Each structure stands twice: as structure tokens, then as C-alpha cells.
Amino acid sequence: MIAVYISSNQFSVSTDKTIEFVPGRRLKLDQGVDGIAYSTISGSTYSTPNTIVTTKESELTSNLVSVLYGVVESGSEGSLPDHVHDGSEGSGGIILYNYVISEDTTLYVSTTGDDIIGDGSLSTPYATPHKALDYLKNKWINGDAVVTIQCGDGSYVLTETISPNHPCGDRIKLIGENVYSKSLTSIQSSSGSAGAWSLVLNLNNVTSIESGDFVIIHTPSGGTRPYHVCGCHEVTNVDAVNSRITIASGHQGSIAPSGAISATVIIVKTIFQMAAGEHGLYIDQNNKLGGLGNIVFDGGGSTGYGIYITDFSFLKILAATYVGTYDTNLGMFSDNNSVIKAEGLVACSKQGASHAIMADDKSTIICPNAIASGVSASGKYGFYSVYNSHIEATGAVSTGGVSIGILASIRGMIRAVNAIADEHTTGFYCSRGAYIYAPGAAAYNCSTDFNPAVNTQDNEFGYIDT
């Protein structure tokens, strides 16, 4: 019969049906896009012209459509009376999933949302992605359905790591709402020094750009030191009159970029400000996230990692999207038989104490055209593959680090076709049974370009193949 949502534990049906909706009777509730739910009646009252039904569980949603009730008796038409599902002897077993989501669903998150009264709708969004993930924790997502957690423009101050550990995680996407593409036409001016540059950029227009946004800059050419501008940087000022923006860059080079540098500038509007000591995104224990895109993880100098995938887990970065990490300990890390597949563009910049992009312990990162910039710690690297791991870095750029740009060691492998290493002590380094495949790769402004020399075995059986 038709049911009308009142609250998370109440609904109404027409006419007096109190004799049917009795305490202890089981309910099957059709909640539309939120799937099927099962609950138990705790009581009902009649108030002309409707019966108000109260449930023991508080998990009804505003998408409630209809309700069926069971007959408390044996036989094919009957249902069990109220009973527990705690795994104890004589109970009904443990119910892990109260709902089934059977069609594509979007949960909305906004900086003006509310995790207490919000329901994830466009009109009443949640305040954090954590609340959206919490909503999904007891829900099964069918194989032909995708749940998108769409985070609106703005900066979200996170209080804990985002951990989307769900058995249907490959059918969950976490995306930012808007990005905009601009064109860099030249460098207006620069100030600062290695690791703390302020660059004024001339753009074709500055529509939809605000201070506090982030830019991901790629594919530079022309001018002086063009690769210096590559990476993920914070917008600190917008000059609408002159179509200029000022960005903060953690590039470790001692010479600022200048002149008629052209490049593509992507404006990312959804920013996750990481909590102190926490990671931005963490997936472990054989879990998956089926989509990530159009988000920047701003570490603010945190000791956490921007993106950390471990223990046989998987992350997909969506095609035609952009993901950045900024001012973190380590940018993006795949560890212990895990896989990161980046079909979109990744930029990891201003790492405080570790590497920009790292695959360790039989793990894989597929990140063509990715950018690593501003690694500030000695002995840390832009791209680092180690212990039987693999990084696909065709067309990638590593720029402005104090040590090595692209390094494979201890049987690690990096595919670095047409990759660029710029402004490092050593551009490409390979050692201890590792292999770098680098046709078309180039090193600029490095003390040493390739070690060992290309097509020569050295450093305990390291080999860079061009």
C-alpha cells in the first residue's frame, strides 16, 4: 500500500489501519532510489484521515513509496515476529545490509550542508563525505547501479581520514562538482625563493576563480623554465581587472619561471583540508573505490598522506577528471599488492617529508601524464617504484625536487616513455635489479641526467632502456 514519509522512524497510510499495523509485525518498505528496507512496527495511532506508524529502526528515507506487512504466523504467507539479529543462538543471524540500492543514485555534499538533518538530497545535502559513506554502510549496491557522492564547490575542513571501505566500493564514486579550464599566456612576475614561490600568472580569463581554489597546471611550453609551473598550486589572489591570478608554489628550483610560458590551467573548486596527522583518502583490507575525481587534498603541512591505498586494495581515478595533493607528507602511495589506476590527471605537489608518487611491495600505479613537483626532503623522489612494483608514467613530469626525479630500485619498474625530469640533482636513477623503460624521455636542468647512463647496466644491475 502507499506510504508517506514523516521521519526516519515514522510514516503514514490512509484510513484507520491500526488493527493491521500492530507492534512486532515486520515491514517491507520500498524506498525508491534508496532500495528496499526491512523494519519492525513499534506502534501505530489513528488521526483522521491517516494512520501514523512508528518503527523500531530509524532508517526510513524521504524516498519512501510503499509498504507491505507480514502476517505473524507460520506458512508461506507468514513472517517471523520481532527478533534479534545479533548472531546469538536462536537469533535470526546477523543482518549486514538493510537496503538494496538497485539504480544509479547521487548523494549530495555541500559546505552549507548538515550531517544531522541532511538526507543527502540536492535540497538538503550532507556536510561531509563521511556522512554519505556512513549512510551507505548498511546498504548493498547492485552490480548495475552506481552511487555518486558529489561534493559541491568549496573547502571542507575534515576532522578525520576519508575511508570508503565498503564491499560494493567499486560501485561508489567520490567527485567534486566543478572544474574549469583556462589558458596560461605568460608569467607576469615572481617573488620568493626555492620551496616558497609566489607566481603571478596571466590567463585568458579569470571567470569562476576565487582565492582558496587550486590549480593543476600541465603541458607547458615556451618562456624560461616552463616545467616550473607544473603541478598543483593554491590560488592566493585573483586580479579580475588584469585577468591574473597569484599562486603559491612549493617548487624547489632556485630560478623562477618567466616569459611567454603557455600551459593549460585547470581550476579545481572542491578542496578537502586534511586533519592534522590524518590521511586524505585511505583504502585498505581488499577494499575498492570505483571513482575519484575533481578534488584536491590539501595537507596544510600534515604528516598524513594525500592518497594511501594498501593491503590488496584498489582506487580508480576517473577519466577526464583531475586529482591533486598539496603540502602533504607523501602525495599518492600504493602499497602491499594494491593498484591505483588513474585515467584522469594526477598532480602531487609540495611534499614535506617523503615522495610525491610511490608504489611499494608488489603494487601498481597507472598514472600517465602525472605530475610530481616540489619534493623538499633529501633522499625522497618524484616517482618511486620499489620491491617488485610498477609505475606507468608515460608522459609524466617530475620537477623541482631536491633529490631524484624518477627512480626505480629493488626490482621496481617504471615505464617512463616521453617522461620529463626537470630541476633535480639526478633526473632518472635505476638500481638493484630495477628497470626504467624511457624512450623519448628527457632531463633538463639536472646535475646528472641518467644514472646509470642509458642502455648501460650499473648500480647493482639497474638499467635505463631508451
Secondary structure: helix percent: under 10%
Q: Helix/strand-derived class?
A: mainly beta
Low-confidence stretches: 74-78, 90-95
User: Biggest sheet: strands, sense, closure?
Assistant: 11 strands, parallel
N-to-C CA distance: 70 Å
The radius of gyration over CA amounts to: 27 Å
Number of helices: 1
Instruction: Note the overall shape.
Output: elongated
Question: Approximately how much beta-strand content do the residues carry?
Answer: over 45%
Largest beta sheet: strand ordering: 8-10-12-21-24-27-30-33-36-39-42
Average pLDDT, all residues: 93
Question: How many runs of DSSP E, i.e. beta strands?
Answer: 42
Describe this structure in words.
The protein has 466 residues and is mostly beta strands. Among the domains are: 92 residues, no CATH class; 90 residues, Elongation Factor Tu (Ef-tu), domain 3 (Beta Barrel). 2% of the residues lie in helices and 45% in strands. The protein has one helix and 42 strands. The strands form six sheets. An eleven-stranded parallel β-sheet has the order 8-10-12-21-24-27-30-33-36-39-42, with helices on one face. The chain has a nine-stranded parallel β-sheet with strand order 11-19-22-25-28-31-34-37-40, with no helix packed on it. The protein has an eight-stranded parallel β-sheet with strand order 20-23-26-29-32-35-38-41, with no helix packed on it. A hairpin with a 4-residue loop joins strand 16 and strand 17. The longest helix has 8 residues. The radius of gyration is 27 Å and the shape is elongated. 48% of the residues are buried.
